Amino acid sequence: MELIDTHCHLDVSDFNADRDVILARCRALGITRIIVPAVDAEGWPQLLALCRRQPGLYPALGLHPLYIDKHTDQHLADLERRLSGNNVVAVGEIGLDYFVEPTDKNRQQALFEAQLALARTANLPVLLHVRKAHDQVLATLRRLRVRGGIAHAFNGSRQQADQYLALGFKLGFGGMLTYERASRIRALARQLPLEALVLETDAPDMAVSAHQGERNSPEYLPDCLKALAELREEPVEQLAVQTTRNAMEVLRLHD
Description:
By secondary structure, this protein is of the alpha/beta class. The chain has one domain (about 5-250): Alpha-Beta Barrel (TIM Barrel), CATH 3.20.20.
């Protein structure tokens, strides 16, 4: 089986001690591609260097809404420059986060729209971070159309899911599938068309239930696949093939 982790922060210091070992284990498990999204401009050089050094790692560059106080107009100019010539597969992780208060919603919105404009110009998909702001993000995407992307760690309603799909997006599901208490997310993963789904870990965050309280790792992606198969009562192999195909399609990855 071949699997793609569509969202993993493998560049962060949590993995400095054993990153190469983890990658070797991932490859042995069939996890052949990992998308590594950025959160701030400071981390871009290291992230790009890691993806150049390790086969199967693909960079996404963006400015995360939670770190709005760190981002500047110069960072946007630097982002525009770096989106060409670095094998960047997406603009991300970008979006709106209204979960953490207080937050400057106007600045978040302006930053989000600026990055969508860069994605449009570069003809790249986007990796969305959205909390308590799906309606606002969807309204923005209807105004400023981009070439689809992935709604990472999707936690919205079925109606919102359908709206993302209509705009050319896939929906990312990960470790929360392994928790029985996550009934709404598990129900969505069961009900949505298989063509809508991609797998992710969001490591080092959002660990699967078997490793609750520990550092999450991309090597736990098969746990997410197994949970999805049990929820949908469909063969693991079939889900591996289709979720991988979905990721390759939306991110324009090639064999």
